Amino acid sequence: MAATVRRQRPRRLACWAMLAVLLADLLPLSETLAVMSVDLGSESMKVAIVKPGVPMEIVLNKESRRKTPVTVTLKENERFFGDSAASMAIKNPKATLRYFQHLLGKQEGNPHVALYGARFPEHELGFDPQRQTVHFQISPQLQFSPEEVLGMVLNYSRSLAEDFAEQPIKDAVITVPAFFNQAERRAVLQAARMAGLKVLQLINDNTATALSYGVFRRKDINTTAQNVMFYDMGSGSTVCTIVTYQTVKTKEAGMQPQLQIRGVGFDRTLGGLEMELRLREHLARLFNEQRKGQRAKDVRENPRAMAKLLREANRLKTVLSANADHMAQIEGLMDDVDFKAKVTRAEFEELCADLFERVPGPVQQALQSAEMNLDEIEQVILVGGATRVPKVQEVLLKAVGKEELGKNVNADEAAAMGAVYQAAALSKAFKVKPFVVRDAVIYPILVEFTREVEEEPGVRSLKHNKRVLFSRMGPYPQRKVITFNRYNHDFNFHINYGDLGFLGPEDLRVFGSQNLTTVKLKGVGESFKKYPDYESKGIKAHFNLDESGVLSLIKVESVFETLVEDSPEEESTLTKLGNTISSLFGGGTTPDAKENGTDSVQEEEESPAEGSKDEPGEQAELKEEAEAPVEDTSQPPPTEPKEDAAPEEEKAAEKEKEEKSEAQKPSEKKEAGSEPVPPAPEEEKKQKPARKQRMVEEIGVELMVLDLPDLPEDELARSAQKLQDLTLRDLEKQEREKAANSLEAFIFETQDKLYQPEYQEVSTEEQREEISGRLSAASTWLEDEGFGATTVMLKEKLTELRKLCHGLFFRVEERKKWPERLSALDNLLNHSSMFLKGARLIPEMDQIFTEVEMTTLEKVINETWAWKNATMAEQAKLPATEKPVLLSKDIEAKMMALDREVQYLLNKAKFAKPRPRPKDKNGTRAEPPLNASDQAEKVIPPPGETEDAKPISEPEKETRSEPTDAEPLELGGPGAAEPEQKEPPTGQKPTLKNDEL
């Protein structure tokens, strides 16, 4: 029996260990609870966080603003972000980078690269020799790629969020324009990796806005579809989105609201920036005209002057949205010449006339992609700062044919709020109300491959095949599987964009390469040699278009099947073992689709190009991967392969074949001259139909990225280290500035304190002169040599001055603390003395404190009184300029010692129980005997007598001789009734009840 128990203990310990590991995985850590979102706009960004107690809050930056410019100033020894960098754009425009997101994923020769150079000629652009991507050449030794600059901005946004949340943050959802292609999305993800951020999702900004709109109107969504159009014109681009809201039934949570992106239209260059550039050019022309006869240089050749004009153009655009005209004025625009000119709204609208004509374009694109008309749109909602321009609203209202435009969302913060809601939903630390989001694919993706076909006997030719992998406006995230049925050797296939005819010629040039990846498969022929007796089910390529809209090839595998028959004994054993293991984990056998991690995986077989004919068996077929669950294993032929049940159709077909064969067997045997022998009952019982066994062999994959090669891991690590070094340098710079400011503040504050009465009272003239001289010397050193001093030198200088002034500050602080500390000590002494006096007045029978305890308290009280009187007398003899002997810390120590003794007795009385009273012969409880202290106290006289009838000096025996129901005076109140108590166990000390104190 003991041996059995010993054997069971390790099993129990193992079970508890496994449970602990599972709980550790499921329970999120408190320091990683907060998540953030970054609405990354062209001109500015908004950051939002979610943490326990702070639901969906916009982060304030260091200037207490809710919107932060996406601007970075990069100098040799320092960096500036946000508003500080925006102000540096006037002083150092070459080192100040703005609108660099327009260069993400762009290569040399892209029209957007040339456009950026024309807009901001002060920047020197270089190109990577391997990837042909752009980088900023700040100086001969300083260059940064757009991904690195974006990584700096993301790291800065995280620092703002962490300061606001007061805890570290690593998880984020980042918004990107809906028109970003694969190369641009991968560039954003690489920038986040450089910053050390874990991206939960890249969410399209139009989807984030739609989610924010739906979350706050959850009750208005029902089973009836509601079509809403969001028109978002920001600083750099314009996106129009048609969204359908309705409740749908989900497997996990029943009926839940859902948003589905139905149509999207966009214009990459239509936005507020282009309007500001038109205004800047107009102001530059006016300034040149004002100085035409002065032989002055063109203002366009001065980067600082153009930066000033762009800032003024931004202000003008905002003011003209509410006023018919405004005066543009810049002090000292160039060569100390001021600029002043009047600009009207009519002039502004004339400058941007062609831009306003492009406003309806995204609306028409969205309607076409959604296959809808304007009558089906219930509401048009404005989003983005540029929609505040009156002419934009006028043209848009005419284009959509509505009575009014919706302005019931926060045009600046809606995307950030929607993204942070999605971040909370994706994080394991929060539980939010479900809101189903079905985003849409903007650019279709297809698979192309070529193989040999035999059209005529002896004549072989190459045939090009296409298969649409993800169609335009199809939902994502989604997984798909494509099966190549007619290959038994290594081959290649290509992943490209599909039909992009909806893009204009200029958009196609900006789009970049339409070829994504070439996939080379290795090991196909070897897999066929390994399973010569198996039937090939094709080469399956598994694709995933994840939540961020990024395409990836998960794996490629060669699948084979065969029919096997198992003995009943072996099958029974395996079945029992499998059922036992499955029951332990709450599951059983699952279809292949479940084994692949999703039930939405779709499988497609290879098909010929559209419009071409092919032999039977090669037609396109779309089906669920879990349609025919069979045995699946990725190892070489095992001794005990896994089993899956065959489909019902196959079982029925096999059963029908068996019946036909059984019907034919008797006739055949009769013809042979023999009678059929019926099987034995046991053998018939053991017969089972053959099952399918699937063998899976992993195929080697070599990818060749064609649109934009990703950064190699070593270069990505170097970029991340570069950003980390810059961050450490910034932190060191901040620490040095903090030390210098602390030293300067200490010098000024101390020089001022030397002339205050409270400091003069506790110091001599010689002491003040010495301190003043040292402070003046330190101030001179800080002005002359402080700029080159290190952080350590500044801290040492501050420590030296603090040590010099320590005695003076100590004497002043002690004198400030004396009144409060001494008053508290007196109150504690008085209350302690009263408590001790009351404790000694408790009758002996009800006494809960021992004589030692009361004597100890009395001793502490007396010692504290004596120490206070002696120390105050000694302090009175000392001059104020000497170190005091009456110290606040000593007063606090005495108070703690006295309070500790009192609290001990109070806690004892709090949990004490009353002693039982002994009863006399008549059954009446006897009065407790009085001690010496009781002689001076009154007692309650028996009924019928007054208090005056019995003086307190009379013997107590006369008072207690008669039976009476009156009780002696207790601390709980005169005459308080005491319940009858049982005798306590032997050795147990009776105590008072809490309510009798």
UniProtKB/TrEMBL annotation:
<dbReference type="GO" id="GO:0005524">
    <property type="term" value="F:ATP binding"/>
</dbReference>
<dbReference type="InterPro" id="IPR018181">
    <property type="entry name" value="Heat_shock_70_CS"/>
</dbReference>
<dbReference type="Pfam" id="PF00012">
    <property type="entry name" value="HSP70"/>
</dbReference>
<keyword id="KW-0732">Signal</keyword>
<keyword id="KW-0143">Chaperone</keyword>
<keyword id="KW-0547">Nucleotide-binding</keyword>
<feature type="compositionally biased region" description="Basic and acidic residues">
    <location>
        <begin position="640"/>
        <end position="673"/>
    </location>
</feature>
<dbReference type="InterPro" id="IPR013126">
    <property type="entry name" value="Hsp_70_fam"/>
</dbReference>
<dbReference type="InterPro" id="IPR043129">
    <property type="entry name" value="ATPase_NBD"/>
</dbReference>
<dbReference type="GO" id="GO:1903298">
    <property type="term" value="P:negative regulation of hypoxia-induced intrinsic apoptotic signaling pathway"/>
</dbReference>
<feature type="region of interest" description="Disordered">
    <location>
        <begin position="566"/>
        <end position="693"/>
    </location>
</feature>
<dbReference type="GO" id="GO:0034663">
    <property type="term" value="C:endoplasmic reticulum chaperone complex"/>
</dbReference>
<dbReference type="GO" id="GO:0030968">
    <property type="term" value="P:endoplasmic reticulum unfolded protein response"/>
</dbReference>
<feature type="signal peptide">
    <location>
        <begin position="1"/>
        <end position="34"/>
    </location>
</feature>
<dbReference type="InterPro" id="IPR029047">
    <property type="entry name" value="HSP70_peptide-bd_sf"/>
</dbReference>
<comment type="function">
    <text>Has a pivotal role in cytoprotective cellular mechanisms triggered by oxygen deprivation. Promotes HSPA5/BiP-mediated ATP nucleotide exchange and thereby activates the unfolded protein response (UPR) pathway in the presence of endoplasmic reticulum stress. May play a role as a molecular chaperone and participate in protein folding.</text>
</comment>
<dbReference type="InterPro" id="IPR029048">
    <property type="entry name" value="HSP70_C_sf"/>
</dbReference>
<comment type="subunit">
    <text>Part of a large chaperone multiprotein complex comprising DNAJB11, HSP90B1, HSPA5, HYOU, PDIA2, PDIA4, PDIA6, PPIB, SDF2L1, UGGT1 and very small amounts of ERP29, but not, or at very low levels, CALR nor CANX.</text>
</comment>
<comment type="similarity">
    <text>Belongs to the heat shock protein 70 family.</text>
</comment>
<feature type="compositionally biased region" description="Polar residues">
    <location>
        <begin position="574"/>
        <end position="583"/>
    </location>
</feature>
<protein>
    <recommendedName>
        <fullName>Hypoxia up-regulated protein 1</fullName>
    </recommendedName>
</protein>
<dbReference type="GO" id="GO:0140662">
    <property type="term" value="F:ATP-dependent protein folding chaperone"/>
</dbReference>
<dbReference type="GO" id="GO:0005788">
    <property type="term" value="C:endoplasmic reticulum lumen"/>
</dbReference>
<feature type="compositionally biased region" description="Basic and acidic residues">
    <location>
        <begin position="611"/>
        <end position="626"/>
    </location>
</feature>
<keyword id="KW-0256">Endoplasmic reticulum</keyword>
<feature type="compositionally biased region" description="Basic and acidic residues">
    <location>
        <begin position="947"/>
        <end position="963"/>
    </location>
</feature>
<feature type="region of interest" description="Disordered">
    <location>
        <begin position="909"/>
        <end position="997"/>
    </location>
</feature>
<keyword id="KW-0067">ATP-binding</keyword>
